[in-house]
Design goal:
There is one protein chain. By secondary structure, the chain is an all-alpha fold. The chain has one domain. 81% of the residues lie in helices and 0% in strands. It is built from 5 helices and no strands. Helix 1 packs antiparallel against helix 2, helix 1 runs antiparallel to helix 5 and helix 4 runs antiparallel to helix 5. It is elongated, with a radius of gyration of 18 Å. The two termini are 19 Å apart.
């Protein structure tokens, strides 16, 4: 039995959020945890992890545009298909990174945000490839049946 497209897309967004949150937590704990007592305290590392979780939530919300793939017009057009996955999260990433770099806050480091964005981008790209591959396979099976 085939699962509906909305279920697949929402499941992919959920797993993207979990994978990117877990990987950014691990990366930040390892990288910034090494420098506890030199540059950071343990509270700073935990604050950065909470900030990373908040950013992952925001990125997951901006990725809800993948639900535009419920429309067959968007799903069949390659340009719209790619843009529905990547455009809004990329714009959010650029805007927040520019805001952070231009404001230059004392306690916030752009490297923290880069780890979040890179881990989220890798996760969403993997799910994009898997969804596009499964959609292509489904399309070929329909064409073979007719």
């Amino acid at each position: 039995m085939n699962k509906p497209v909305s279920y697949i897309l929402l499941r992919q967004l959920f797993w993207t959020f979990l994978i990117s949150s877990g990987s950014s937590f691990i990366i930040q704990t390892i990288f910034f945890g090494i420098h506890v007592n030199e540059w950071f305290t343990i509270e700073d590392v935990m604050t950065l992890n909470i900030l990373a979780l908040f950013l992952n939530i925001c990125l997951a919300l901006t990725s809800l545009t993948t639900l535009l793939n419920l429309s067959s017009k968007i799903r069949k057009n390659k340009k719209y298909f790619v843009l529905s996955y990547f455009l809004v999260p990329l714009l959010f990433t650029i805007l927040t990174f520019v805001a952070i770099v231009s404001l230059k806050p004392k306690d916030i480091y752009p490297l923290d945000f880069l780890t979040v964005y890179i881990s989220y981008s890798i996760a969403i790209a993997l799910f994009f490839v898997s969804y596009s591959y499964s959609f292509l396979k489904f399309k070929r099976s329909i064409q073979a049946n007719f």
